[in-house]
Amino acid sequence: MGKRNRKTKPSKNPKTKFMIIGIIAVVIAVGVAATAMNPDSIKADHTKSTKLSLDTRGGSPVLGDASSPVTIVEFGDYQCPFCKRWNENTKPAIEKNLIETGKASLIYVDFPIIGPDSITIHAGSYCAGEQGLYWEYHDFVYANQGHENGGWARSENLKLLVSGIDGLNTDSFNECLDSKKYEQRINDNKKIASDAGARSTPTFIVISQDGAAEMITGAQPYGTFQVLVDEMLG
């Protein structure tokens, strides 16, 4: 299984961290070897790590209260089977025990590394978001995930798939998807994830209110996140 690697940095003004959601200043020096050996993640084809300001403004709507003392940033690919596993097995407990209690919030940043169809299906999340259904789309496509690069995420198949999302106007969604207006946003998020040190999906950066950050790689169980969040809150 993947390992957690502690990252620290000087304290930041907590207001800077949560500007819907804004730019989070962090230093990520990733233990790439641990990521590469993780059997519960899909690895990207690059290894450079860098210092940066983590800009999450192009990612998902915040799940939870943006002023929560801990922020969990997930870098994922909708075609990644390990991301699906985490979304179905770990995310519900995080929502119930950490997000709904106000301890943490979650932001999803696109990291489409599996194939060209990943760009399309990630762009679709923001088309659904135009209708206030980002997180419904997010959970729905993971629940209905097909094989990697198996064609299920291509535009024509995705349009059929999302007709199963309650309340989604498919005509508006299809028009949005065909416009490709969110594809540059997806590519920008991919670079942000890469610059942050993500080498595989899923990868998480957990950030405390004082600016300390720790990276978690792979489809780790709820307990891994609970222990870290409790440490940051303590």
- In the CATH hierarchy, what is the class? Alpha Beta
User: What fraction of residues sit in β-strands?
Assistant: 15-25%
Low-confidence stretches: 1-21, 27-37, 45-51
Q: Say how many strands there are.
A: 9
Q: Mind telling me the C-alpha Rg?
A: 17 Å
For the biggest β-sheet, the strand order reads 1-9-8-5-6
Give the tally of structural domains.
1
Helix count from the secondary structure assignment: 10
Order of helices and strands: EHEHEEEHHEHHHHHEEEH
CATH superfamily: Glutaredoxin
CATH architecture descriptor text: 3-Layer(aba) Sandwich
Report the structural category.
alpha+beta
Residue share in helix: 40-55%
Roughly what is the average pLDDT, rounded to an integer? 85
Largest sheet: 5 strands, mixed
Morphology call: globular
Q: Remind me, CATH topology?
A: Glutaredoxin
Q: What's the end-to-end separation, in Å? A: 26 Å
Your description of this structure?
There is one protein chain. The chain is of the alpha+beta class and 234 residues long. The chain has one domain (4-233): Glutaredoxin. Helix content is 40%, strand content 18%. The protein contains 10 helices and 9 strands. It has helices spanning 14-17, 32-37, 81-89, 91-99, 116-129, 134-143, 155-161, 170-179, 183-195, 222-233; strands spanning 4-7, 23-27, 42-43, 51-55, 70-76, 104-110, 200-201, 203-208, 213-217. Strands 1-9-8-5-6 form a 5-stranded mixed β-sheet. It has a two-stranded antiparallel ribbon with strand order 2-4. β8 and β9 (213-217) form a beta hairpin. The radius of gyration is 17 Å and the shape is globular. The relative contact order is 0.23.
